[in-house]
Specification:
Blueprint lengths: L1 E6 L3 H12 L5 E4 L15 E3 L8 E2 H14 L3 E3 L3 E5 L4 E6 L2 E12 L3 E3 L2 H4 L9 E3 H11 L6 E5 L3 H12 L3 E7 L8 H8 L6 E3 L1 E8 L3 E8 L12 E4 L2 E4 L3 E3 L2 H5 L24 E3 L10 H19 L6 E8 L3 E5 L2 E4 L3 E8 L3 E10 L2 E11 L5 E6 H5 L4 E8 L1
Parallel strand pairs: 1-2, 1-8, 2-5, 8-19, 10-17, 11-12, 11-17, 12-13, 20-27
Antiparallel strand pairs: 3-4, 6-7, 7-8, 9-18, 14-15, 15-16, 20-22, 21-23, 23-26, 24-25, 24-27
Amino acid sequence: MYDIIVIGGGPAGLAAAIEAKKQGIEKILLLERDEELGGILQQCIHNGFGLHVFKEELTGPEYAQRFMNTFHDLNIAYALNTMVMEITPEKEVHIVNDQGYQILKAKAIILAMGCRERTRGAIAIPGKRPSGILTAGTAQRYLNIEGYMVGKEVMILGSGDIGLIMARRMTLEGAHVKGVCELMPHSNGLTRNIVQCLDDFDIPLQLSTTIVDILGEERLTGVVTAQVDEHYNIIKGTEKEISCDTLLLSIGLIPENELSKKAEILLDSKTKGPIVNEQLQTSQEGIFACGNVVHVHDLVDYVTEEAENAGRAAAHYLKDIKKSKKPIEIKPETGVVYTVPQHLDYISDQVKILFRVNSVFKHHQIVIKSDDQILKTIKKNHMAPGEMMHIYLKREELEACESKLSISIGEL
């Protein structure tokens, strides 16, 4: 019997396990399906990591190594090349590795499985299936870890951060990136990545544009792009053929929650991750979740902060540390896609609520209501879907709240 089993050895799993150990929990086991710790950070060789956590700029492997060093110094047990097949509401973890099939039991579980990329099949681009079509993350692994150059003339569909970063990476390796197409009228990436990865290299970003056809038999020879209207319908006559031998897809990330479903954990239809409270506890008592398995984060620094909170909360759960209970439902309303957490169970000195907006808002305000009463308003000069927003609510504000809390975007 373990005190805590952490599933996932990426930045979230490492930070959660480290924090739980620092809280005095001894019997911790971390499970990782890959052959090494570090998760996706091992292939993210660009810099920009650690500005919030370490106050300095690091590459992905450097950021991961700092946590791996602490993890090893604390002598936390872990198993690599271990696939988790199932977790149960009773906190049984079914695993397979070179030792065979085993069932492990834990008093608490922390889910930190991360996310996966959406593929071509998710958006049903018409055309044949020539080689040369990859997700941006797959291309990143081929280039940065395996050492393969995936193409010379490149188009990118989707302006997510991985796609933007790969536009720059492919350019630095000598490829000609002809452009980035984005279905939405705004980019889904961080502003800094648009500037550093596209603007600095004169790579065009084509908004309200998508790919409507794939050209080529054995190998991709080109794509056909077209503009879309405000309802995302193709505008006839705007089709344009662009020659290329590679298409990278950066069309969104999906939290890895197959295990969560088997444990009968309730999922949010918007985030595709578990519904959690302010302690990051899921609908199953004693099972916590953090990082990109809950919702897709902008920065790994934010993943770390959330994972540390999950590790601390799991430790408090085992120690049976109670707080003043006051269930409050959080509802996203006008302009807000989702919130994390989705509800509060306990009154803390301060609660941080994350949320995403559904459009670009300039000179608007965040409106927090308790039922129909305005609790708080916060002015914002700029809000965009590609950048996670957050608010803090203090104890006195939460105590004044009734059973429901709403967050919306309003005009000034």
